[in-house]
Write a structure and sequence with these properties.
Elements: H1 20-31, H2 35-48, H3 55-62, H4 66-78, H5 103-115, H6 121-132, H7 138-148, H8 154-160
């Protein structure tokens, strides 16, 4: 029976695990964080290392208010130290305004505008209310005119917008 030769195998390099702060930085790099978001990661790294969990010292070191630091620190802790919680969130409203003109109103306004091409939105409003006995705002009329480009002189209108 032959003895296995040890020189046939490569020596394994030891696996060196990064500390958690380097992992946080690595996640920020892989996630494509912006400069501001990476700075927040640095706030947390400083807070838990050199800052010795002193929020006032950390805020002073980075030149931010304690309130701002506490906000981000709480968000970070509540997420169980998930680095993605330090990324910016969308500031868009949850419910955006929707088009309030019904299809019937839109078609009526289009017909009126084609009939009275040189009338403005205020005159069209009066005519609309007389003809259809329904209230409508000048803003709705203006929106329909813009949407369908119902201008008397198309070239002139394109220059103004």
């Amino acid at each position: 029976m032959r003895k296995p030769a040890s020189f046939y195998f490569f020596k394994r390099k030891p696996i060196v695990l990064k500390d958690r702060y380097e992992c946080w930085r690595g996640v920020a790099d892989l996630s494509g964080f912006t400069t501001q978001e990476r700075l927040r990661v640095e706030w947390m790294v400083f807070y838990y290392t050199a800052g010795k969990e002193n929020a006032a010292l950390t805020a002073q070191h980075f030149g931010i208010s304690r309130k701002a630091f506490y906000k981000w620190s709480k968000r970070f802790r509540d997420s169980k130290y998930d680095v993605h919680s330090l990324a910016d969130r969308s500031r868009a409203p949850h419910r955006k305004r929707h088009w309030e003109v019904t299809l019937i109103q839109e078609e009526r306004i289009r017909r009126l505008r084609k009939r009275y091409l040189y009338y403005g939105k205020k005159k069209l409003k009066v005519i609309y209310e007389k003809e259809y006995s329904e209230e409508i705002s000048t803003w709705k009329i203006e929106r329909v005119i813009r949407r369908h480009k119902l201008y008397p002189d198309q070239k002139k209108a394109e220059k103004t917008f």
